[in-house]
């Protein structure tokens, strides 16, 4: 009997329309911000369960328990970066410490300079969604989001916000930076949800 030939793993792992480039591109809008540990804080705000904001200083945030996630990374401009080992604070851990109010169905993640990305609570709460402090066993480099970036592996990478400073719990959906500039509100790369004109009724706020 002939053994089934092995399919290169990256083929089955690559969403439609994506390719694996040489190297690992770095891409973002604007400049790399300076990290100032004395004034840096990570805030959880909006519709929290207590009604209060939660704040984590750099020493507090960097001491939170970490988990490791192996994940690929798909940019809407069609390159994918395969097999990244991210380590950081899972959204489950953060939500335990700073729980959302009942009725929170959406989240906005905020970065330095006002960059933002929104997602459904169901995407935020997925087991592999995290706030990464390390990539491949080293602190994340400044241009990749040091000290903390979001990693939402199952959505296009613009949702994986670098230089995160806050999470805002939302009772109603609102568009983030790219979502209000013509990109798809949901951004599932397996369904090629690239642009907002593809949105079906109910997939985004008006
Ligand atoms: N704060 C911030 N985060 C960001 C961006 C940005 O412009 N600002 N760009 C996003 C986009 S479009 C992509 S593809 C990835 C790129 O991550 P990388 O530079 O590690 O490859 O970061 C995302 N996170
Ligand atoms: Mo991107």
UniProtKB/TrEMBL annotation:
Protein name: Molybdopterin-containing oxidoreductase
Transmembrane segments annotated in the record for this chain: none
Gene3D superfamilies hit by this protein: Oxidoreductase, molybdopterin-binding domain
Residue ranges annotated for the Oxidoreductase molybdopterin-binding domain, each copy included: 30-178
Lineage: Bacteria, Bacillati, Actinomycetota, Actinomycetes, Streptosporangiales
Organism the protein comes from: Streptosporangium roseum (strain ATCC 12428 / DSM 43021 / JCM 3005 / KCTC 9067 / NCIMB 10171 / NRRL 2505 / NI 9100)
């Amino acid at each position: 009997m002939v053994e089934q030939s092995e399919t290169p793993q990256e083929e089955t792992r690559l969403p439609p329309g994506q390719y694996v480039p040489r190297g690992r591109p770095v891409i973002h809008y604007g400049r790399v911000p300076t990290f100032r540990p004395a004034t840096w804080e990570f805030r959880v705000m909006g519709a929290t369960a207590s009604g209060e904001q939660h704040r984590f200083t750099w020493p507090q945030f960097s001491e939170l328990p970490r988990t490791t996630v192996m994940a690929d990374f798909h940019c809407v401009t069609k390159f994918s970066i395969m097999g990244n080992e991210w380590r950081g604070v899972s959204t489950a851990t953060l939500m335990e410490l700073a729980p959302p109010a009942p009725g929170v169905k959406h989240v906005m993640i905020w970065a330095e300079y006002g960059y933002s990305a929104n997602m459904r609570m169901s995407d935020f709460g997925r087991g592999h969604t995290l706030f990464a402090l390390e990539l491949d066993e080293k602190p994340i480099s400044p241009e990749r989001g040091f000290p903390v970036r979001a990693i939402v592996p199952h959505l296009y990478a613009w949702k994986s916000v670098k230089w995160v400073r806050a999470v805002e719990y939302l009772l109603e959906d609102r568009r983030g930076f790219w979502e209000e500039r013509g990109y798809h509100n949901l951004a599932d790369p397996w369904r090629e949800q690239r642009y907002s004109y593809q949105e079906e009724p109910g997939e985004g706020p008006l």
